[in-house]
Amino acid sequence: MNKHLVNLTKRISAYAMKGDVGHARVLFDEMGHRDTVSWNVMIKSYIENNRLDDARELFDEMPERTSYSWNSMIMGYIKDSKLYAALKLFTVMPEKDVVSWTSIITGMCRASRVDEAWWLFKQIPEANSVSWSSILSGFQQNGFPQKSLHVFKEMLVAGFQPTSHSITSALAACADLAMASVSEQVYSQLYKRGFNNNTHIGNSAISMFIKSGSFENARRIFLELHKPDTVTWNSMIMGYAQHGHGVAAMAAFHQMQKARFLPDRISFLGVLHGCSHCGLVNEGKKYFYAMQTEYGISPGPEHFASLVDLLSRVGELEEANEVILNMPFDPKPIFWRTLLNGCRIYGNLDLGIYVADQILKLEPYNSSACLMVIEMYSLAGKWKEVAEMRRHMQRERESKKQLGSSFIDVKGKIHLFTTGDDSHPQTDCIYPVIDLLSYEAAECFNIRVCVNYDNSVAY
Description:
- By secondary structure, this protein is mainly α.
- It is built from 25 helices and four strands.
């Protein structure tokens, strides 16, 4: 009897795996005797085939529910973005285990309700490494990298062994903060625990160090990694490109193929960025056109944007314009803004005015676009248009330019600065140092420097 029941349950599961839930349900209905396993398998089959209502109907009919039954339904609702239904079940669940707690916390984080997720996490009777990983990644994915790292530290202090998921979340949080000192501390933790040869974690560490400006650390991890994959190579190609090493990006691109890894869309994007930053126009065009002819990869908007940027940087403005006009999709404003910047640098006023008009059609209230257009009109001596554009910007509040800012990490602490900022407590020490650096730079390049009374520097 038991053997027959097991065989029928296996057949139900096999039908469900093929997507044939109808036959699975027929078998289930024909069973003379059902145990909790067969009920759970049928419920899980419905959930995996996106028939949540049928799963709930069966769940409600189930004579005796196990924790697996409850958790399956809760996770099914969370997967279907029905957090309210998952919360209802979680609330009435008679005996909550760590799986149900972790599932509902994950659902809360996916719904961007991280404060409530954190409150729930602190109510777990016995958390484990998976539940810690869930709340940690929840903070990181919702834009709270500092809180994510705080949770990571708490987890280690509490004596829990981090999972690969929690480590990659912590590395991603470091990348979001772009703080070299913190990045090194987190990497030392995973190194001590023997995760340094994990390819997935290694890839996250490479990206983290590249974003925080520690390219040498990224390169060291790359060279020490035992089994690099396509993501590893792409990270290095993009890293070389972002740091202005166009030739090194191309070399990595070819080394990747020698190592028998086929380049993908990201590989080509990286090598195009490298060519663009270094002005390698012939090489960039070669890679762009080789994408489809030699590798069968259709260039996407990001690849066309890189080509336009490359051509605009070296003054091939007419060719850049032809690329935009002949793209297989409608150009986004970024294409025209890139070309307009090239027109401004190389003084092509006729094309610049045309491009400015295209930008205004797409982004009439974008402050950066409006300011670029004003500059182009000024260079062309179109003062009437300049005045009209200024009035237009003044009328529209949404076209106000967002205040730019920069920050620096000093001993793990972030210091934020804006234009003309004198709010920092060490302002009296900062500006004299800037003046000294300005004079030293002027002596190197024979530039005449004048320090104004408002602490700004004129050249």
